[in-house]
TrEMBL record:
<keyword id="KW-0315">Glutamine amidotransferase</keyword>
<keyword id="KW-0963">Cytoplasm</keyword>
<keyword id="KW-0032">Aminotransferase</keyword>
<dbReference type="GO" id="GO:0006487">
    <property type="term" value="P:protein N-linked glycosylation"/>
</dbReference>
<dbReference type="GO" id="GO:0006047">
    <property type="term" value="P:UDP-N-acetylglucosamine metabolic process"/>
</dbReference>
<dbReference type="GO" id="GO:0005975">
    <property type="term" value="P:carbohydrate metabolic process"/>
</dbReference>
<dbReference type="GO" id="GO:0005829">
    <property type="term" value="C:cytosol"/>
</dbReference>
<comment type="function">
    <text>Catalyzes the first step in hexosamine metabolism, converting fructose-6P into glucosamine-6P using glutamine as a nitrogen source.</text>
</comment>
<dbReference type="GO" id="GO:0004360">
    <property type="term" value="F:glutamine-fructose-6-phosphate transaminase (isomerizing) activity"/>
</dbReference>
<feature type="domain" description="SIS">
    <location>
        <begin position="213"/>
        <end position="355"/>
    </location>
</feature>
<dbReference type="GO" id="GO:0097367">
    <property type="term" value="F:carbohydrate derivative binding"/>
</dbReference>
<protein>
    <recommendedName>
        <fullName>Glutamine--fructose-6-phosphate aminotransferase [isomerizing]</fullName>
        <ecNumber>2.6.1.16</ecNumber>
    </recommendedName>
</protein>
<feature type="active site" description="For Fru-6P isomerization activity">
    <location>
        <position position="360"/>
    </location>
</feature>
<feature type="domain" description="SIS">
    <location>
        <begin position="39"/>
        <end position="180"/>
    </location>
</feature>
<comment type="subunit">
    <text>Homodimer.</text>
</comment>
<keyword id="KW-0677">Repeat</keyword>
<keyword id="KW-0808">Transferase</keyword>
């Protein structure tokens, strides 16, 4: 049932505050401001020395985002790969390691094959999965459910933000268990997590201006998405969403890579969506913004209310996000990124729920 929405995708974007809240409630003790993982790791966390994350598509983007959190909170190396590469590249894995598979459906063929490869290599497997009856849910040692509810739109939206929420909680919980994250920091991070549903509601209120922006963007042939730090994976996600829904060519890049090639693409016809939340690398992103601006690129800035002024460049459009703490910005900034792709598809008359050539669940490789 689509309710009052034109598409399941719109409904699912608007459900995110609720389902992220529900998912967090499963992993967080709000009174104690602590993460309470609903499972116990079957290994000594202090001895853990590597995490491997495997997934495809948008679930891979969630894993790539979580790498930043795991490295920061747990201080151990994280390897992340798309499952279609991982399963065939004879990756060495030391027995006793932790492998996290991320999947909405729990049936994606390559992710499932990677899970089985990890099992053969005696990993502890945590499945961050949305369908609790799926093969991956069954074959994981530990099921860490996303409580997004059924996702009907082919484009992953609410499953993605719930994956991010679960991975964030696991990273905090594991950091505590490993002794690399102190109680003080846990309290403040859990406070940041608990603020997310309200911030998602605020972000959703930007829909009207995003609709307007979508009309301009619908004429583009190519769109570049840039971000740094945890906004880099979100830039990949923005480009993926735009491609799959509107069939406009888009690329996501780490903002710092601009000079290493893609800057050659920039001219006055090239829209550049810059995701620049107020985090530790904001100033660095600003210098990339200035490089784009100097070459006449059309900047669409997704940042907080002061971002455009702080960057002191001319922007074609700015989407003002609510003020928030820096750690978990992708969970809120995902909303305008999803809405933009959705509305471009609607403007172009494309079927947002069922893009051409795509299946909801890729069960053959
Ligand atoms: O069910 P899964 O999460 O394993 O699916 C992975 C990808 O196929 C999926 O995220 C795909 O990229 C989406 N269409 C993206 O919107």
């Amino acid at each position: 049932d689509k309710g009052n929405y034109r598409h399941f995708m719109a409904k699912e974007i608007h459900e995110q505050a609720e389902v992220v809240g529900r998912t967090l409630a499963h992993y967080v003790d709000p009174a104690a401001l602590s993460v309470q993982l609903p499972f116990v790791f079957p290994f000594d966390p202090v001895k853990l020395d590597r995490i491997t994350i495997l997934a495809c598509g948008t679930a891979y983007v969630a894993g790539l985002t979580a790498k930043y959190w795991f490295e920061s909170f747990c201080r151990i190396p994280v390897e992340i790969d798309v499952a279609s590469e991982f399963r065939y590249r004879e990756a060495p894995m030391r027995a006793g390691g932790l492998t996290i598979v991320v999947s909405q459906s729990g049936e994606t063929a390559d992710t499932l094959a990677s899970l089985r490869y990890a099992r053969q290599n005696r990993q502890c497997i945590v499945g961050v999965v949305n369908v609790p009856t799926s093969t991956m849910a069954r074959e994981s040692d530990i099921l860490a459910p996303t409580l997004a509810g059924p996702e009907i739109g082919v484009a992953s939206t609410k499953a993605f933000t719930c994956q991010l929420a679960v991975l964030a909680c696991i990273a905090v919980g594991l950091g505590r268990a490993m002794g690399t994250l102190d109680r003080e920091r846990e309290r403040s991070l859990v406070g940041e997590l608990m603020a997310l549903p309200g911030l998602i509601v605020e972000a959703t209120k930007r829909e009207h201006e995003i609709e307007h922006l979508a009309r301009t963007l619908s004429h583009a042939r190519d769109v570049l998405y840039l971000g740094r730090g945890t906004s880099f994976p979100l830039a990949l996600e923005g480009a993926l969403k735009l491609k799959e829904l509107s069939y406009i060519h888009a690329e996501g890049y780490a903002a710092g890579e601009l000079k290493h090639g893609p800057i050659a693409l920039i001219d006055e016809d090239m829209p550049v969506v810059v995701i620049a939340p107020p985090d530790a690398v904001f100033e660095k992103t600003v210098s990339n913004l200035q490089e784009v601006s100097a070459r006449g690129g059309r900047i669409i800035l997704i940042g907080d209310a002061g971002a455009a002024e702080a960057a002191s460049v001319h922007v074609e459009a700015a989407v003002a996000m609510p003020p928030m703490a820096p750690t978990f910005t992708p969970i809120v900034y995902a909303v305008p990124v999803q809405l933009l792709a959705y509305h471009v598809a609607v403007v172009l008359g494309k079927d947002a729920d069922q893009p051409r050539n795509l299946a909801k669940s890729v069960t053959v490789e």
